[in-house]
Design goal:
Layout lengths: L1 H25 L2 H10 L3 H22 L3 H14 L1 H13 L7 H5 L5
């Protein structure tokens, strides 16, 4: 299961990095901001995305033992979205010892 999590996180992170880089090279985000924010689907899409980021962050909040880690990851999740989530999954998955149970990945670390 850990390998599947790592594979999926790398796939998502790579896809997002490639697609945002390509889009940014074609046209900067600020050049389309006015048309973008006038579209009626922007608000529901942003609510959906940031709602998902917040739900994922609740797991990070549970897992991170210190306030500094919680604050840093909140900022990263809100700024990077699913890129931040993929990075967190990769960091946490590579901290595991070989053969460690999935519970060690999912549950809070001992301080």
């Amino acid at each position: 299961m850990i390998r599947l999590i790592q594979f999926t996180a790398v796939l998502v992170l790579t896809s997002l990095l490639v697609s945002t880089t390509r889009a940014g090279m074609e046209i900067p985000i600020w050049a389309v901001a006015r048309d973008y924010f006038d579209h009626p689907w922007v608000l529901p899409t942003l609510i959906d995305a940031y709602g998902g980021f917040l739900i994922f962050y609740l797991w990070i909040f549970y897992k991170e033992p210190r306030a500094t880690g919680r604050i840093v990851w909140f900022v990263l999740m809100m700024a990077l979205g699913n890129m931040g989530a993929a990075i967190y999954l990769l960091i946490e998955s590579f901290k595991l010892k070989p053969g460690a149970p999935l519970e060690n990945f999912l549950l809070r670390r001992k301080t």
